[in-house]
Specification:
Nitrilase/N-carbamoyl-D-aminoacid amidohydrolase, C-N_Hydrolase_sf, Aliph_Amidase/BUP, six-stranded mixed beta sheet, N-carbamoylputrescine amidase activity, C-N_Hydrolase, alpha/beta, Carbon-nitrogen hydrolase
Length: 291
């Protein structure tokens, strides 16, 4: 299969878990009605983005993976014959938590999970308080419709992560994400930040010759101090925007991708072939100085 229809669910969230899960299921059904075969939900879609504060109570939001949410989503995936990409707060063991994305195949089979590798610690994004860095490495998943790679939010900024995922055979790269603007910022700063976020991901599409699908949350949170900027998008293997969501609205959209485009673009723009892998050893250093 080379033509694949992907569904992007860009939504706002509320405090309580169940309404968010219910809304996600409604939008998965909506995407399936539009023909979606793979549906990607945004990062940590069952809750508000709780990492704006360091609060031990928030650990109660975590759950096992597989667990309650994946059990429900597996039934939906099987019913609708869709692949579901679900970003969840994972409780691995007592006192051990990850920012994790589960992948469920179209027959309801739980295929596995990817644990976020790069963990930020910025004002209003205190993720190192909650999440242990991923220890599963980079991952791809062979689904019914395509071999997909999953990375999560802060992973977006790192070309090494996308390169390794592409080298593992990903035909489509998905990024569930949660990023926004402080409402105190000026519009020039907002535009600069969003453009950087989009450009770096489109560059991953170009460098690796694969489609990139980025799904972000939308809406005001943190008592109005944060506006999650939406702007979810799909880029083709040359970085061309095939779909761009608004900064304001909840949207569920389906976009058809042609995975064999990878062969065309990699043949005509052979960035993957022309890599000088013999020269890359220094990249494993933190910085190239004498220490």
């Amino acid at each position: 299969m080379t033509k694949v229809k992907v569904g992007l669910v860009q939504m706002s969230c509320v405090k309580d878990k169940q309404p968010n899960l219910d809304k996600a299921i409604r939008e998965i059904r909506n995407a399936a009605k539009q023909g979606a075969q793979i549906v990607c939900l945004q990062e940590l879609f069952t809750s508000l983005y709780f990492c704006d504060v360091e609060d031990y109570e928030n650990f109660k939001l975590a759950e096992a993976i597989p667990g309650p949410s994946t059990d429900v989503l597996s039934e939906i995936a099987k019913e609708l014959n869709v692949v579901i990409i679900a970003s969840l707060f994972e409780k691995r063991a007592q006192g051990l938590y990850h920012n994790t994305t589960a992948v469920i195949d179209a027959d309801g089979t739980y295929l596995g999970k990817y644990r976020k590798m790069h963990i930020p610690d910025d004002p209003a994004f205190y993720e190192k308080f909650y999440f242990t860095p991923g220890d599963l490495g980079y991952k791809t998943f062979q689904t019914k419709y395509a071999k997909i790679g999953i990375l999560i939010c802060w992973d977006q900024w790192y070309p090494e992560a996308s390169r390794i995922t592409a080298l593992m055979g990903a035909e489509i790269m998905f990024y569930p994400t949660a990023i926004g603007w402080a409402t105190s910022q000026d519009e020039d700063t907002n535009k600069e930040q969003y453009d950087a976020w989009q450009i770096i991901q489109r560059s991953h599409a170009v460098a690796n010759g694969v489609h990139v699908v980025s799904v972000n949350r939308v809406g005001f949170e943190q008592e109005g101090e944060m506006k999650f900027w939406g702007g979810s998008f799909v880029a083709n293997p040359q970085g061309k925007l095939m779909y761009l969501a608004s900064h304001e609205n909840e949207e569920t959209t389906v976009v058809e991708l042609e995975t064999k485009d990878t062969d065309h673009y990699r043949t005509h723009w052979p960035f993957l072939r022309d890599r000088r892998i013999d020269s890359y050893q220094p990249i494993t250093k933190r910085y190239l100085d004498e220490d």
